[in-house]
Amino acid sequence: MKEYHIGIDVGGTSVKLGIVDRDCRILCRRSYGTPKGMDGSQAVDLIVSGIQSVLHACGLTSDGIASVGVGVPGTVRYGYGIVDSSPNFPKWHRFDIRRELSERLSVPVVVDNDAKMAAAGEKFAGAAVPYDNFVLVTIGTGIGGAVYANGLPVRGRDGTAGEIGHIVVEPEGMECGCGSNGCVEMYASAGAIVRYYRARSHDRSRAVTAEDVYRRAIMREPPAMYAFRQMGMYLGIALTDVVNLLNPEALIFTGKVSRAIRLFLPSVKAVVNRRAFRLPSRGIVYRKGTLGDDAAIIGAVCRARP
Amino acid sequence: MKEYHIGIDVGGTSVKLGIVDRDCRILCRRSYGTPKGMDGSQAVDLIVSGIQSVLHACGLTSDGIASVGVGVPGTVRYGYGIVDSSPNFPKWHRFDIRRELSERLSVPVVVDNDAKMAAAGEKFAGAAVPYDNFVLVTIGTGIGGAVYANGLPVRGRDGTAGEIGHIVVEPEGMECGCGSNGCVEMYASAGAIVRYYRARSHDRSRAVTAEDVYRRAIMREPPAMYAFRQMGMYLGIALTDVVNLLNPEALIFTGKVSRAIRLFLPSVKAVVNRRAFRLPSRGIVYRKGTLGDDAAIIGAVCRARP
């Protein structure tokens, strides 16, 4: 009997796999380093061998797999499972990952953008359960997101809706990987935090990471605290647009940088409360996702279950 | 028998009323100048006497009214018909216009923001009929809007979603009536067009209107053409955010300034195509609403019909 599902979160630094039961509990998980610049067939090989390995570790066989869900960083054509483009994997141009995986695995495969999968997970089993109208914001190397309205995911025409990271916050600002400039992704992601810290601390060491800045901010080092305030200020400008445009009940933060939520949230709130309309900005629930790194795995499973 | 409906569009300069049949055809219409700074009871009196007058002109009696729909400029609590606030009518603070009108008229009354009513009209009988995912942008003295996703209006928690005019396009920019600064409403509305024209033409006359600038742009007067390009550039920044966030099939333009669409649309498209992601920006339908000044009247009726 088909009793379990595989959820996969393909990230720029690691590929995470989980075996999930019908109640959305993770039975077993594995994580693999992502080869730099991996192309489509490398990704498919890595996923297929990862599934064998995680099944083996769990004492399960591939006969029991009911479905596979995959979250990927990039724009995915909804309903087709084709990755249109991915800043993390430049070789994945119009890559039909769903077809290749379903041929290799002989089970139904669902593919979507990783932030959409994380939002499905948080909606099904995490911080977003109570909300019909919410926006999920993932903050890490980049900034992604997903929108729910009227209890449904907002996908838009092609399934690319939710690109919060590319809201323009400085019209004449820094060039972004997407081809635009002044996107909030350049001003409120992990790299921006390091940049603000360096500029204020005069620490020019190449080795400093957002993680380091986080630890220094926890220790109340002023340039590190400034870096998170500055990042929160820009994130607040983008979220002002989101609040005025969508009037969400809740803003849910996930991704690595969301661990630092208490360092940046006061600045976000100050900007949103000052700039957004009174009625939609009052009483917004700002919350960290509760599924952590498992959000996209669980969401991918929720989405892929028949 | 109750056979017709009244649609009302309360604007900052005029109040428009229409008697609409069951097939959403306008049988008869009237328009009244809006008294400056009118308070709630003045508005109710004006609407009630306007309805009597338009019925009389049409040879109808109030017995035949099945429902009344009202569009108002401002934030309206959805489901309650209470105007939370209105920049055009500062005295309408938490004004329960629905209750007052339904007591006076003894028929069901529905109240919503004017841009939402216009969107309902265009969705029911205008340019938005074919689209399940679209954004309506009204451009006049201010900029408003409405969002549809998955075939449904996106209202958000309180019903205030769609405030496109308050997307931030210059973080350190001009103060806006909403309390924020740098909102696109300050950079792409009728007043902004006049401002750009004045700055470029060195015409400092107080009397020049957006209408005048429009006529001069049609005559290919360079400073007037520049004014619409500049306005379109800023509108394009805000719509880049909208396109990345919502991936709409269509952007529908209404309001007085939308008459100048061919003057500003090339700049809007140039910015959106340069800045927004390829997949969502390609093939967007940019269209002027087809219901013109009747959009909110027809939408109010569509929304109010039992």
Explained architecture:
The structure is a homodimer of 306-residue chains. Chain A has 10 helices and 12 strands. Chain A has 306 residues and is of the alpha/beta class. In chain A, a hairpin with a 3-residue loop joins β8 and β9 (143-149). The two termini of chain A are 14 Å apart. The mean pLDDT of chain A is 93. Chains A and B meet through β9, α7 and α9 of A and β9, α7 and α9 of B.
CATH class of the largest domain in chain A: Alpha Beta
Strand content of chain A: 15-25%
Taken in chain order, the helices and strands of chain A follow as: EEEHEEEHEHEEEHHHHEHHEH
Q: Helicity level of chain A, as a percent range? A: 25-40%
In DSSP terms (H or I, runs of 4 or more residues), the helix count of chain A works out at 10
CATH homologous superfamily label of the largest domain in chain A: ATPase, nucleotide binding domain
Task: Count the E strands of chain A.
Answer: 12
Tell me about the biggest sheet of chain A?
5 strands, mixed
Oligomeric description of these chains: homodimer
Average pLDDT figure of chain A:
93
What does the radius of gyration of chain A come to? 19 Å
If you consult CATH, what is the topology of the largest domain in chain A?
Nucleotidyltransferase, domain 5
How many domains make up the coordinates of chain A?
A: 2
- The general outline of chain A is globular
Identify the biggest protein-protein contact and residues per side. Answer: A-B, 48 and 48 residues
